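<instruction>
Derive structure tokens from the sequence
<data>
Labelled lines for chain and fold:
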Amino acid sequence: MSAENSVEALLEEARLNASIPPSAERQRLREAANLSRAQVAAAVGVGRTTVANWETGHSDPTPPARLPYLKLLKGLAEIYPAISAPAAVPEPTAAPDTAAVPPAFVPALETLRGPDGRAIEGDPGPCIRCGMETTYQSTDGRPLHSGAMCQPAGTATPQAAPSAQAAAPATTTATAHAAPAPVSPTPAPVPSRPERRARSAARAQADTTLLISRAVQEEAERAGGDEETALKALIKRAIPDVMHLFNETRATARYDYTAYPALPDILKKPSKKDPDQIWEARPRFHHPGYSLRAPGDIKVTALDVNAAYLSALKCWLPIGKLEHSTGTDGIEPKRSGVHLVTPGEWRHPHLPDPIGDRDEPGALWITNSTLRLLQRISGPKYGLTDAPVIHESWTSGATENFLDALRKLLSAARDEAIENRDTLTLEYVKAMYSKFISTMGESIHNREMVRPDWMHIIHSQAYANLWGKAYKAHQAGLDVVAMMGTDELHVTGDWRGVFPEGRGVSQMKIKHGEGKATGEYTVGAVGR
């Protein structure tokens, strides 16, 4: 494409973006053309939930789907122009209609079902009872949740207005002069900003938590009680669902982020099969003093770190476009990205190397998570290695709390599922956070963001967290026999005196599996 054509394409997109209609108009245009959200989603290359977010104002279109979506809206606006409303005619003030029925009291309607008794899906829309989006419909064709999935909205708000009007009776002209001046009511105490923020966050988390439980109930009902079928459906929808949750938790966030930054070549895959140049420091450690193959008399316990990737969402993520720097110029506490470094020599064969298992020495590109670990353990508190030499970096301003709201939401749902022994919800939550991380890079399954730097940083944070647990065990007098992946740690001795046992995010449990080196087993010493 010539430079002139490229400029014209950018100008066309800018013109379309400047005239993008509001969210309600986007929905009107689609409905006027009798198009479903699924049809629009397929045409522009996004998920159906994404189109719903654009039409409800939860988010605005982002590349690469933005340009085709804007072209579609422009074309529909030419076919179905908005009709100007006539000038409003003042009407006499009428008494409040006490017979009005709030939405929560919609007459009981039946859910539309097929011959097999299962609820039939249609085009998604706000439920006529609770207002939350649903794909189920009532027998008269309106969106309606099925059975227990619908939680009617409270009636406090609709009743507030009549109560306020009843509290202020009309005053006649004759009594107006004789009546004393009204006494102003004592104002209610105004909550502080932290209190308001806490209430808002709690309310938002409760609302988004309902989205998880309703999704599980929908698929369970659609599957007719077949848990395996329901789980397959939940895993299939995990990516669009978690992106919707992500957008919901970002609604009141402080930081705007770049979903499609210009990436340096080191973060680009040369081909579909070949990886980029970032080293995630994935561990594969075995203690040289133990043999996992020969039986022995030394007892070893294989421990499993719960929800390792979920905990790793708490990490420093760059929120803008990555900028290049050399040496230590771009190294600041509140910046994050990727760095070309030469790590110090690791002289502790009985401890895992924090850089992972490397085939070749020398400089390599690592993430900010790994760099922070290397800088920490090379400091005066640990003194385990020399400080890494930083050659160049690609970084941006960063925050450690970018994904914290999503992490807390999924953690709470996970804890509740464990308490209720709800395997379906537990596996659904696991699929959401694992797929959220694995598809935020260059993935055809998630077109709402392209942040391979985030994916690498979160992976590396999981490995850094595991290394920290291994070092804690070592400091407590346990031998670290093996450390692998993001969640596997094999130790000798009384591990329960070091780590709390359980299935919680901050706890550890015994790892059980088909392999030999799982659970509790014995090994032989090899020249310790």
